[in-house]
Amino acid sequence: MCFKKVILLLSILPFALCQDISDPSPFPRPLIIEYAEINGARLGDCLSVEVQLKCTSWRVAVEANNLSPWARIPEDCADYVKEYMVGKGYELDLQRVSNESENYARSASLSGDGKDAWIFDIDETLLSNLPYYEEHGYGLEIFDSTKFDQWVEMGTAPAVESSLKLYNAVLSLGIKAFLLTGRSERHRNITVHNLLKSGFQDWNKLILRSTEDHGKTATKYKSEKRDELIKDGYRLLGNSGDQWSDLLGSSTANRAFKVPNPMYYIP
Amino acid sequence: MCFKKVILLLSILPFALCQDISDPSPFPRPLIIEYAEINGARLGDCLSVEVQLKCTSWRVAVEANNLSPWARIPEDCADYVKEYMVGKGYELDLQRVSNESENYARSASLSGDGKDAWIFDIDETLLSNLPYYEEHGYGLEIFDSTKFDQWVEMGTAPAVESSLKLYNAVLSLGIKAFLLTGRSERHRNITVHNLLKSGFQDWNKLILRSTEDHGKTATKYKSEKRDELIKDGYRLLGNSGDQWSDLLGSSTANRAFKVPNPMYYIP
């Protein structure tokens, strides 16, 4: 295991592995380690090239919606997913999707009649459950709804900062925010409390699963709720969610933005 | 530049950069280069951690359909994209999507009435234009339709091998193959010739853009063609395409499979 100790070392000694070979000798020689200005070297550099390739391929397949329903991350990608989540990868991806979304929102032609709308999912989109998943193997453990509910009921999930930035930008343009979550209606109060505490304000409506929505797939439940918004005359400009089941189905938004999440899958 | 010479070196000397630190000394010390069994070390190891992170993030955003229309790859990802395409990354991703698609096809409940259908795009899905893009910066150059047409008219594009495997598996299950391409009707003969030469046979129909389809986006053109298939009673079990415009729109298939392609974007 070359794990935490290497983080320490690499945070002191960032490096790049490039050799300036000025003679054409075909024989192997010792590689020269050079100092570099970048400070991106982290835990992930300890994973073998093979694991990096394989698990990146798996993660890309997740983000492209190419995988069948899956219950937990591949066991041999456990360190990779952890590194991605706590390292720079996740943060970079979050910022990219937030920036893309904001650029699109700013360029969209708005009607200004109060019917321009944007849909936001909550978990892993507006609020981060990373403190919970840190304790549960970053998706390596099978999902335990009892334990997760206990976490939700603490109401302490931090904001996904890049999403808070997008959220505020969207509101500042006069677009209405609809929060459409798979959370249960019985968690309304704690969810409102958590959202406010984490900096989210002034949403138009918070939609949670009511009794009759339980047992439906997220795709079906969320599609029905979007159908209702369309019937009420809203134009769905954008939709931000970390699950494809947030984004696909009927009454889809003009642009859908897949927020990264390699930890779990909701059908 | 630590480019081709390092490929040479690394192909002789595969390595992993992991140190087994058994004492907790917080002081920097020389890193130890270890031999490893894997042979995945290539050109990409020359890219800085920063470029790897940034360009992987960009590529994930492409595959997740998070980017606005884009005309060419980011300039600072030119080496990264090349490495991905000629290295193991692209091949791994192709195999993964092919395997996922085949598993799904084998588990799908088929009617057996001759109306089970699968849609395949052609370019970068069944046939590879990599020999062309090798000569044109792997997406770094702005697309030149005249030059690309000259390449198409040679009829020498090789099969995407993983897609040929899927294609044959799909046919062996009794599913009808519909080839739905953005290529023009005037390229029908050379396309048929190229497909046959590369090993593809027995498709049910090859659909190309006719005069009235020119000027439509791929999403619109392909949606209209899928609408017609549905009207003809076909059930679209699967759809394989390297562009989201192959997969989204109306009459979408039960499962859509995004074949990797970081080189270009078609709306």
Q: How far is the N terminus from the C terminus of chain A? A: 35 Å
Residue stretches of chain A low in confidence (pLDDT < 50, at least 5 long) are 1-43
| Name of the level-1 CATH class of the largest domain in chain A | Alpha Beta
**Helix-strand topology string of chain A:** HEEHHHEHHHEHEHEHE
Oligomer: homodimer
The CATH level-2 architecture of the largest domain in chain A is identified as 3-Layer(aba) Sandwich
Radius of gyration of chain A: 21 Å
What can be said about the biggest beta sheet of chain A? 5 strands, parallel
The helix content of chain A, as a percent range, equals 25-40%
Secondary structure: number of strands of chain A: 7
The proportion of residues in beta strands of chain A is 5-15%
CATH superfamily of the largest domain in chain A: HAD superfamily/HAD-like
Biggest interface between chains: A-B, 58 and 58 residues
Summed up, the domain count of chain A is 2
Which structural class do you get from the secondary structure elements of chain A?
Answer: alpha/beta
Signal peptide (chains A, B): 1-18
Protein name (chains A, B): Acid phosphatase 1-like
GO molecular function (chains A, B): acid phosphatase activity
Family (chains A, B): Belongs to the APS1/VSP family.
What would you say about this model in short?
Chain A has 267 residues and is an alpha/beta fold.
